[in-house]
Structure formats: C-alpha cells, structure tokens
C-alpha cells in the first residue's frame, strides 16, 4: 500500500494531465474550454482515481460533457499512464463537482442576509432608545436621586 504523499502526488499529476489533455489533446466538441477539472482523489492502493469536474453551461452541456468524458476515459487513462510511469495505471471515474451549486446556495443566503440587514437598518433609522439615551450612571451623579438611596434599607428604623 502506498503512503499518502505518493497518492497525493499521483492525484496532482492526474489532475494536471487530464486537464491538459481535455483542453489541448481531445477534439471532442462536448469537451474543451467549458470543462474544468477541480480535484482528483486517488485510493490508497493507487488503483482507482476519482476526477471531479465542473461544466460551464446549462444542464444539457453538463450531460454532454459527462458523455464526452465517459467516451474519452480510455484516452485519458492512457495519457495518465504514460505520464505517471507506474506499474498499474489507476482507473478513472469522473464525478460532477457540486461546488458551483454549493457556492450558489451560499451566495443566495448571503443576499438574503444583506436584504434583512438593510430592512433592519431602514426600520431603525428613525427609532430611539426605549429608556434614556445613556442608561449608565455617571461618577458625578448622586445615588439619592433614584429614590430611597439605593441601599434597600428602610431609613425610619
């Protein structure tokens, strides 16, 4: 079994080789500049590699890119094998990365929070404090102004 550093190096090499081959080596119109390789993970035994990718476009472009990657899997694995120079070339599995959808969800949540903050700011623009503007006692104020002296004891006794 390989160590984690070797698996990490192989994953980085696979990511670079697959990205380069997609952009310059494969003449499939379904692939090309609209497919971006985001991450690659290799199992500990270096037999399987998962390549995560994103596609710029709509759902039809994503389906076409998935089909294009599946058809180019052999060519890409061959390129990885010649670049890696290892005994067994890992089998490649392509998985659409959920990163754009997650980023979109976060952006929408931030936009809702900004809108709520703006509503609160507008509502509080003409508001005033419920009590005094400064509820704290100052060092020059006497404690007797508040009523019974503030000590809680009865002075008639």
Key traits:
157 residues, alpha+beta, GMP Synthetase, Chain A, domain 3, 3-stranded mixed β-sheet, 46% helix
Describe this entry's structure for a reader:
This protein is α+β, with helices and mostly antiparallel strands. Helix content is 46%, strand content 14%. Strands 1-2-3 form a three-stranded mixed β-sheet. Helix 1 (4-25) packs across helix 3. The mean pLDDT is 82.
What are the segments in which pLDDT stays under 50 over at least 5 consecutive residues?
Answer: none
Q: Please, what is the average pLDDT?
A: 82
Structural class: alpha+beta
- Give the terminus-to-terminus CA distance: 89 Å
**How many strand units?**
3
Q: Give the biggest sheet.
A: 3 strands, mixed
Known CATH architecture of the domain at 4-102: 2-Layer Sandwich
What is the CATH T-level topology of the domain at 4-102? GMP Synthetase, Chain A, domain 3
Shape: elongated
Q: Give the radius of gyration.
A: 32 Å
Helix content: 40-55%
- Under the CATH scheme, which class of the domain at 4-102? Alpha Beta
CATH superfamily of the domain at 4-102: K homology (KH) domain
User: Helix segment count?
Assistant: 4
With strands numbered from the N-terminus, the spatial order across the biggest sheet is 1-2-3
Q: How do the SSEs run, as a string of H and E? A: HEEHHEH
β content, as a range?
A: 5-15%
